[in-house]
Known about the structure:
Elements: E1 3-7, E2 10-13, E3 18-25, E4 33-39, E5 46-52, E6 58-60, E7 68-73, E8 78-83, E9 92-99, H1 104-110, E10 118-119, E11 123-128
Amino acid sequence: QVQLVESGGGSVQAGGSLRLSCAASGLTDSRYCMGWFRQVLGKEREGVARITSTGGWRSVADSVKGRFSISIDTDKKILYLTMSTLQPGDTGIYYCAAAPPELWSTSCGSGLAADFRYWGQGTLVTVSS
């Protein structure tokens, strides 16, 4: 069973930086699509960035392009989201997610939360002005 555990959230002032980590277990050697999503109370979960488990392909949402980057340590199976120049609008719960191997292309292509099956518990990021 795939398990994802996020860490690294916290409170930061606008303009600051944070790096989120997601430790994955239960992954096989197959290719997965892994991603970061965020959710603000009352709004739908929004895709932030996604990457293949091999690290060979990645994509970042336009809303955070140039400020956020996604990476993966393929040996340790740890997913990272490096966030800089944070803004109050970036406040939310950040979730790590993974899609099963048979859906890696679909999920990485769409970036939709519905295409990801495995989810972490989330980590809160608060950006104050």
